[in-house]
Amino acid sequence: MTAAQRTAGLLEGWFPSAARPLPWRTNTHDPGQVRDAWGTLVAEVMLQQTQVSRVVPAWLAFMARFPTPGALARAQEEEALAAWSGLGYYRRARLLHAAALRIVAEHHGLTPTDPRALRALPGVGRYTAGAVASIAAGAPAAIVDGNVLRVLARLHARPGAAGWAPLVRWAWAQSERLVAAASRPGVCNEAIMELGATVCTPAAPACVRCPLAGQCRARALGAPERFPAPKARAARTDLHALALVLRDASGRVLCQRRAPGGLWGGLWQAATLESAAPIDDAGAHAWARMRGAGAGVRPLGGFVWLTTHRRVRFRVWGGAGVCCLRRRAAQSAASPAAPPTRWVSPAELAQLPMGSAQRRVFELAGVGAADPRPAAAQPRGPLP
DNA sequence: TACACGTGGAT
DNA sequence: TATCCAAGTGT
Fold first, then answer.
1. What is the pLDDT of residues A125-182, one digit of tens each?
2. Which residue has the closest alpha carbon to C5 C1'?
3. A198 lies in some domain
4. Which residues of A are part of the catalytic machinery?
5. Which one of A177, A196, A226 terminates a domain?
6. CATH number, position A11
7. Which of A50, A150, A214, A352 has its CB 3.0 to 4.6 Å from that of A268, i.e. a possible disulfide?
8. In angstroms, what CA-CA distances link A109 with A58, A150, A154, A247?
9. Is the CB of A150 under 7 A from strand C?
10. Residues A19, A167 share a domain
């Protein structure tokens, strides 16, 4: 028996009793598949760089609304984005919508399970293609994600930082070998990820519960947590955002849509001015009046929002909008290329695709029903 | 290749 | 509190 066969066997034996009961693991109504391929694809895309606890409620809601590729393909992209609100990395929702269109057009509405066909779908890279092919159809397709890389690096005490290309290439080769040796590739793949997520964790791994402890070279060296070495991270750049929450007499609020692409691309927000430099009160007031605010517009508060690459210092101003005709004149005069704007009720606002920072803006301004999702909770930062 | 892309849990 | 980083992909 080869080392790979032994590892695969241990993983496959461990998984059934250790697997968390996640909703996408429970079913299948298609007896030809290990698991529903569409539900698996949706789960894998949501899980890209996103923790399981955040994905569970989102996956349940998304699958209730879009149970098949056809259901998503019939919807507008904006509905997919709205269903993604709060999950982050919104490009994933656009790409999944595009993938649904392709599945309908090129695969008769049936999610492919062949790795090559999967890989050709928008938003499906090498990892996701391998995961869906193996988990939904049992194909011997390799996968490497953060968990797999960590488990393999420790198992072989392989040096190198997490993002280092030679280490990643080595991990793919190891995964290929492992999955080729597995009797149930999908189970083996899910097991190694589950092991990384629940036992072989980045800090304080629970080696006493690990089925691979006996063959783990990093453990034998006495310091499994040193593998892989941490990867260097880019510094965050500061961004200043002035958000203006305007209400009309009937309680509707003014929203605008961000340009596609870039940060929060295509999502809705309060009228917002972004700047690399701080915006003083006089500048804020002048801009707010130009965007249609009445004379009573005033600062309501602020907060700091962190993303991977930015520290965004939000200041929120609010007040009443001026009357309709003057408002339109003011907008077009202010900026002929101004983004599309709409006045929406608080109920409509809740259905609009919007990032969590802008939900927070409306919440701070006292606009009810801004967040249809369970309470988001970046720490309540101090004023910028 | 290196970088941009969101959000929140874990420590 | 600050930092890490989580079932990656596209450009």
1. 999 999 999 999 999 999 999 999 999 999 999 999 998 999 999 999 999 999 999 9
2. A49
3. yes
4. 44
5. A226
6. 1.10.340.30
7. A352
8. 22, 36, 41, 44
9. yes
10. yes
